[in-house]
Design a protein that fits this description.
Radius of gyration: 26 Å
Number of strands: 46
Shape: globular
CATH class of the largest domain: Alpha Beta
Strand content: 25-35%
Helix content: 10-25%
Oligomer: single chain
Structural class: alpha+beta
């Protein structure tokens, strides 16, 4: 694979071009290789740290500094000692890990690139662990480290029952329960087929709703709610393997904008099997099952459902005796409703109150509501910058949350359920995360900060450190050289400027705009190490700039929803305006030589920017772009543009091929053949439109998925080298 030749298409001519200049600086090449092999110096960090219920230990996964195979570890909080619990090699020996198509798809949805134990579950009493490897389930006793292989194979989404006596999981489209005392596997559902499954979330739930579960244990462990998914009406898309034309294409049910979605219903069944009681709600009016919560014995099974336009959602409590629902509350928005990706609603143990999050007052807030859904009080102020709920500790009467008024930061706070001011547990500028133990006394805190520091530690509830988790990650020779700033124009965009380490005052540098510019993602965050890729380009002789304009999160409802009905005009205006504002302040930015680069939505933006603003952008790199939005999925696209049948002009304006005949600058298209998120169809559509318009372009097809550029170090290395070569050529940077 390392020697694979890359194909570049100009008009209809195939040109074989070497990736690198013959005399490319070997130091630059080594930096690229180090970054690729260490995955931006993150391999070897603790992954998914989780405190035990009593807070006495922390379980976590970790690989090596250049090894993505994760092993399972335990930290003793009192002593600070770590021990290795189990490794993939113990279970597989010299055999290679194998993944089913279903597991590969789930990892694609979660953007999981690691190998080995990519996740684990912990029993409620903390005594046993559950891991999966090559589709086989293993039970690990924490005290003795005894490993027991559970019956069955090709399991998806295994989880303990709350009482720890059983494990539920899905295989071959059916929900199963494995009784641990007898190691007996019971199949609860039946009738699965190519188009009908039980116990797993459909594509748009996983990709767009941040809902990966398709079943839920009852609090008493005696029943399970599960999703039945009927995809018989969903369009099938096929992905062929171009290296193996003898292999049949893979089939995927993919609901594109304006087409039928999967039909979803929810049922409840006893742990021992039997008849399913189906839950009834107006699924015609509210077809999206966005959230399912069933945590507290005194609280009802609760659903959050949305209408297709995602402008109306209802929170429903279920009467298990009849399967009927009652409405707890509703949210509406004339543009769209966002989903909180934290466990909302969260019921209190008495079943009389629950926590809810809303943007009703113009920005995200956390609220306390009563059993009827009525507002009791606002817990976070409207200007706080609420991000998500970590957990509620009812013993102390506190809700732990993430938030910051600065969209670049995420801090850990706690707010009293009784109302009143919150207090911050963290304050250093950067991105903080936390997970609270069930005892409420300890939490695992991870941080990636503006000063370049990173860590994972155990804190007491008052914020003082109890223990530190060991990282094996390599340290970069130098940290990125980033200036965080804010433009001075009327709207004031947050920006980051990455300069070469050998930056010379008084010299002008060509500029690369590293861009996403789409919903639900900020490119500018107070996480210095997130700019490692940008620093590589900067050290090759560029200044790299990132900006967040309207449509991005963290600056209130109106700022985000300005893009309704038009994906490009506001985003393009703001990026250009912000870039020019920076150029007026920083003379080293040579705005006569600007390139643009992005992936996914950022690839879409890069294509539009290069085509529509040749006065600003001299060239563009377009990675895995959405080109025609009617060919992207329903839940994402229709949220912002509406249905294509109802808003054809929104789709025409937002379609890259609408402007293909305007291309006047060099364009490099990159896409993985096996992408099942943004199908290769999109880049093929743009390539065809440019060809028919007589416009030259360059094309780098890749073997892989939407994450193709990150799948292996050598693939990432070659892709980064190709981008550098492209920018050097078209922004007139010569190799030494």
């Amino acid at each position: 694979m390392a020697s694979r030749t890359l194909l570049l298409f100009t008009f209809a001519t195939i040109v074989f071009t070497p990736v690198l200049h013959a005399n490319e600086d070997e130091i630059t090449l080594q930096h690229f290789r180090d970054v690729a092999e260490t995955r931006n110096y993150t391999l070897g960090r603790p992954v998914s740290p989780r405190p035990t219920p009593d807070g006495a230990a922390v379980l976590f996964l970790r690989g090596g500094p250049r090894d993505p195979v994760l092993r399972l570890y335990e930290l003793d909080v009192a002593t600070g000692r770590e021990r290795e619990l189990i490794t993939p090699a113990q279970l597989l020996g010299s055999s290679e890990e194998t993944l089913t198509a279903e597991e590969k798809s789930r990892r694609e949805r979660t953007r999981t690139l690691d190998k080995g134990f990519t996740k684990f579950d912990l029993s409620k009493d903390g005594a046993r662990l559950l891991v999966t490897l090559s589709g086989q389930l293993y039970l690990v006793d924490r005290a003795t480290l005894k490993v027991t292989a559970l019956p069955g194979k090709n399991w998806i989404d295994p989880r303990f029952a709350p009482d720890g006596t059983a494990v539920a999981a899905v295989t071959a489209g059916e929900l199963h329960v494995i009784e641990l005392a007898m190691l007996v596997d019971h199949t609860l559902t039946s009738g699965a087929s190519d188009t009908l499954t039980h116990g797993t979330a459909e594509f748009v739930a996983q990709e767009e709703m941040d809902r990966f579960e398709g079943y839920w244990w009852s609090p008493d462990s005696q029943s399970l709610a599960y999703q039945e998914t009927d995809e018989s009406g969903v369009e099938i898309r096929y992905i062929a393997d171009p290296l193996h034309p003898e292999t049949a294409p893979a089939k995927n049910a993919y609901p594109h904008a304006g087409s039928p979605n999967a039909q979803v219903r929810l049922g409840v069944i006893a742990r021992t099997g039997g008849t399913t009681r189906w839950i009834t709600w107006d699924a015609v009016q509210f077809p999206y099952l966005a959230r399912v919560v069933w945590k507290e014995t005194a609280a009802p099974l609760t659903l959050l459902v949305q209408n297709r336009a995602q402008q109306d959602e209802r929170l429903l409590a279920i009467d298990l005796a009849t399967g009927t629902t009652r409405e707890l509350l509703r949210e509406t928005d004339p543009a769209w409703l966002n989903l909180d990706n934290s466990p909302i609603p969260t019921w209190l143990k008495d079943g009389h109150h629950f926590l809810w999050s809303t943007e009703r007052r113009g920005a995200w807030q956390l609220e306390l509501r009563d059993v009827a859904g009525a507002l009791v009080r606002e817990l976070t102020p409207v200007d706080f910058g609420y991000r998500s709920l970590i957990k509620v500790d009812e013993n102390s009467g506190l809700a732990y949350v993430l938030g910051s008024a600065d969209p670049r930061d995420t801090q850990v706070w706690k707010f009293p359920l009784a109302g009143g001011s919150g207090s911050a547990l963290t304050s250093a500028p950067g991105r903080h995360q936390a997970r609270l133990a069930d005892d409420g006394h300890t939490l695992v805190h991870t941080y990636d900060l503006r000063d370049g520091s990173w860590g994972a530690e155990v804190l007491a509830h008052d914020g003082h450190r109890l223990a530190q988790l060991t990282s094996l990650a390599e340290q970069p020779a130098t940290l990125p050289r980033v200036e965080f700033t804010r433009t001075t124009n009327e709207r004031a965009y947050y920006a980051a400027i990455v300069r070469p380490h050998d930056f010379q005052t008084g010299q002008k540098y060509p500029v690369i705009l590293s861009v996403y510019a789409g919903p639900h993602y900020n490119s500018v965050t107070s996480n210095l190490r997130s700019f490692v890729d940008e620093q590589l380009l900067a050290d090759a002789g560029f200044i790299v700039v990132a900006l967040d304009g309207r449509g991005t999160p963290g600056r209130g409802r109106d700022w985000e929803r300005t893009i309704r009905g038009n994906f490009i005009d506001v985003a393009l205006h703001d990026q250009v305006e912000g870039l020019q504002a920076l150029g007026a302040v920083y003379p080293e930015l040579d705005l006569t030589r600007v390139g643009v680069s992005g992936w996914s939505f950022g690839g879409y933006f890069s294509a539009m920017a290069t085509i529509r603003r040749p006065d600003i952008f001299r060239c563009g790199v377009v990675g895995a772009p959405v080109i025609t939005w009617e060919n992207y999925d329903t839940h994402y696209t229709e949220r912002y543009l509406g249905l294509p049948q109802e808003a054809p002009e929104a789709y025409r304006i937002s379609n890259v091929t609408t402007y293909a005949n305007q291309l006047a600058r060099p364009l490099l298209l990159i896409h993985g053949f096996s992408d099942d998120n943004v199908y290769f169809q999109h880049t093929a559509q743009l390539a065809n439109a440019l060809f028919l318009a007589g416009k030259p372009y360059e094309f780098m097809p890749m073997l892989g998925t939407h994450m193709a550029s990150a799948e292996t170090p050598v693939i990432r290395l070659r892709e980064q080298q190709r981008q550098l070569d492209f920018f050097r050529t078209h922004l007139r940077i010569k190799s030494e």
